[in-house]
Every structure is written in C-alpha cells, then in structure tokens.
C-alpha cells in the first residue's frame, strides 16, 4: 500500500487522516503493514520539478507498483493541491493501471464534500487506477472522531476495494 499526501505542510493533519485511513484499510483488508510507502509531498516539494530528482523518481516508482493507493489532499480553492497534481503529472498514461486507489480530501466545511469525487477521482482514473468506492471527505470538526468517520465509510467501501484488488489487472 502507498499513501500519497499532497499537503504543502509536512506532518499535516491531512497526513494524520490519511494514515488513519491506511491503518483501517490494512486491518480490514488484512494487508501487510510493513509494505506501506508513505509519501508526504511537502518533504520533496522542492524536487518535484527536477526531472532528475532521484528521490522523487524512487517515490513515483514505489507508488506505481503498489496494489492499493490512498491519495489525500486538503481542499484548496475547492480542489486538490498543486503539489499533489505536480507529483501525479510526472506519470505517463495508465501508469497506475495495476492499482486500486482511494481518494481522500480534508476540508473546513462540508460545502466541498464533492471535491474528491469531482476532481481527485478523475485524475486517478486518467492514470488508469481503479476507484471502486466513493471518495472520503473528512471535515476538520471530525478530526477527533476519525475511528467513527473512517469506520462508517470503510463498512461500505472495504468489500468493494477487496473485490477490485482481487480482480485480474485486466479487469480493474
């Protein structure tokens, strides 16, 4: 599993939410937790526009071979961040075709709850990832109740994610 977080602040609250989601998915889908790759893009932001940046290239490769990818961003101007887009722009067509992806966004208010569906899902689908569930949107007032928020979402999402992950790559 890979977790990619596009918050321009390292160690952000969005990272905390994404890791909580990854923990829930790891537990419910019985995934190996030691195989997790965490990409906090704020830590490599200065290297994203350097095509020779070895650290970014290694992260791109690690994410591309992951069977499950949690992609998280705070809501900026009603969509995901530019740092997240810059990372995913480095991939070629269908680079994530072997992956199942889970879009996650955080925000101040429910007014942007559709942002991950309207903006983040199409980005992941364009890269070939399978997105078998509804996206997850978590408002700041729910950050102290992540077990409940993520658990309720996971009750419905995990069976679909599990089916998608067990399907042959050609059927994703």
What does this protein look like?
The structure is a single chain. This protein is α/β, with parallel strands linked by helices and 172 residues long. The protein has a single domain (2-171), classed as Rossmann fold. It has 5 helices and 5 strands, in the order βαβαβαβαβα. The protein has helices spanning 13-29, 54-64, 82-88, 115-126, 146-166; strands at residues 2-5, 37-40, 68-74, 100-107, 136-139. Helix 1 (13-29) packs across helix 5. The mean pLDDT is 96.
Q: How confident is the prediction overall: mean pLDDT? A: 96
Tally of contiguous helical segments = 5
The CATH topology turns out to be Rossmann fold
Radius of gyration: 15 Å
Q: Identify the CATH homologous superfamily.
A: Flavodoxin domain
CATH class: Alpha Beta
CATH architecture heading: 3-Layer(aba) Sandwich
**Helix-residue proportion:** 25-40%
Instruction: State the order of secondary-structure elements, H for helix, E for strand.
Output: EHEHEHEHEH
What is the rounded distance between the termini? Answer: 17 Å
Structural class, by secondary structure, is alpha/beta
| Total E-strand runs | 5
Low-confidence stretches: none
* Morphology: globular
The tally of domains stands at 1
Largest sheet: 5 strands, parallel
Strand order of the largest sheet: 2-1-3-4-5
Strand content: 15-25%
